[in-house]
Amino acid sequence: MTSRVQPIQCIGCPVGCGGEVVLDGDRVVEMRGFTCEKGEAYAAEEVVAPKRMVTTTVRVHGGALHFLPVVSDGPVPKEAIFDCVRLLRGIEVTAPIETGRVIVADALGLGVDFKAARAIAVASDGLRPA
Amino acid sequence: MRDATYDVVTIGGGPAGMAAALAARQAGADRVLIIERDRELGGILQQCIHNGFGLRKFKEELTGPGYADRYIEMVGAAGIDVWLDSTVLAAEAGGRITCVGPTTGLATVEAKAVVHSMGCRERTRGAIRIPGSRPAGVFTAGAAQRMVNMEGYLPGRDVVIIGSGDIGLIMARRMTLEGARVRAVFEIMPYSNGLTRNIVQCLEDFGIPLYLSHCVVAVHGHDRVTGVTVAEVDADLHVKPGTEFDLPCDCVLLSVGLIPENELGRAIGVSTDRITSGAVVDQFRQTSKPGFFAAGNVLHVHDLVDLVSNEAEIAGRSAALFAKGVFGEATHERAVIAGEGLRQVVPQRLSTLEKGKNAIRFFFRSKAPMGPSIIALKTEDGIVWDRKLRVVKPSEMIVADIPVNRFAKASHIEFVLTLDEHPEPLEGAVEEEDA
């Protein structure tokens, strides 16, 4: 079987290492150019099953703000990103919200939870309504 | 009318103001106040709902609101006063601050030391003089970010983005996730002005094309924008005739740079850096006005909030020492020069070095993208320090902690950035040491 070289730009941190992964079929045989373990793990996954963190907002009732930012607690397969966002578009929560609250557990059976990225007080309590 | 006296007052309650206030408390300032014009602390972090913040500071990946949340908790626990909904109108030499807010009315504060942490604002259409009509639907990317992430409005469904700054790239992804079509990003320079990771995860992931060396030559539409005409530019940034083409759209987002919001500094005559548009500061982040310190994006625009917090800690600590009267007189003043290959350096001057301090952190930006390079410190004794860099981009700040013993006695301090004739192979890891 012939091996091929796939260039991968790491997105793990702002250093942004550009490296290469050498593949034999679907098997990683060599990696060069990455400068940390996290980067190598990212590159190894990126060539076979790319994943991304997902952030969006959900609607809030009775809150000082009308929208709550939410974040996945782990990366989501790339092809499921839009499905996750569509799922979250239909979610509504009621204030108060504390940081880290699970808003959707095991989204779409992917094993990933979506959590509140910040706290939101009730409308009369602290922040004025937006 | 409310009157008060404080040791340290930070003007602005974003990441810089909060970190400076915390550091001031830790350095022994008893009475510390943050004055914030928004309805809550956190500044622009609150609208940056994407992840990628805090990798250095907290060793984990947070969203903007998540990063702000950490600091808001620390500020709350540290016994720091916070005035929200309060806009500072003036902060005069001597430390008299006048501010106004809907609940407090007019208030004055006497501060022994002041930290300028007002952040930055976006350059607008006027700043880059885009020709054409002036319809609705043209926004700065950050304004659109606030609309989408906090106010719940989608500014358009068919989007063209001008400029490849990070906020524009982030908004390309965000608008796509919200169901809009993002047709393309146009960048006038031959290289991108955003972080490489954002090109990958915000454009390439969604198949959004990035056109380098392209600019907008016309905006069309009467009431609402209906399209733009773009064209290729040559090396001198002049439009190449015959390369124009039209794109329909109902929304144009601009991500064409940020400028420090330094009106309060300029009003009291703080010396400013022509390149950064922020104050000229020494290693303590003290401006040319004694007792006035500056940190974060009001000083120079950063790529990473972690580095903003880091810099603000220096300013906050220095302000606390100044308020206590134990801040040394600046006697041994030296200019720091951004030489060949470099566009800017912060701090721009050094004053008397602090005893027991082993290294000083410098921030640089390059003039142009370069491959493997060497950044070096030149004094009258020649090159006294250098470091190899794998790759250099104007959009990615260079950070270096330089041992004080290399330049303690030097009178000429100049940094240069040159191509590396003998680059290390790909494996070579280059990371700055943490201070």
TrEMBL record, chain A:
Pfam families: DUF1667. It comes from the Bacteria. This is DUF1667 domain-containing protein. The lineage of its organism: Bacteria, Pseudomonadati, Pseudomonadota, Alphaproteobacteria, Hyphomicrobiales.
UniProtKB/TrEMBL annotation, chain B:
Signal peptide: none annotated. One of its GO terms (molecular function) is oxidoreductase activity. Keywords: Oxidoreductase. It holds the Pfam family Pyr_redox_2. It comes from the Bacteria. Residues 6-302 form the FAD/NAD(P)-binding domain. PANTHER family: ANAEROBIC GLYCEROL-3-PHOSPHATE DEHYDROGENASE SUBUNIT B (PTHR42949). This is FAD-dependent oxidoreductase. It comes from Siculibacillus lacustris.
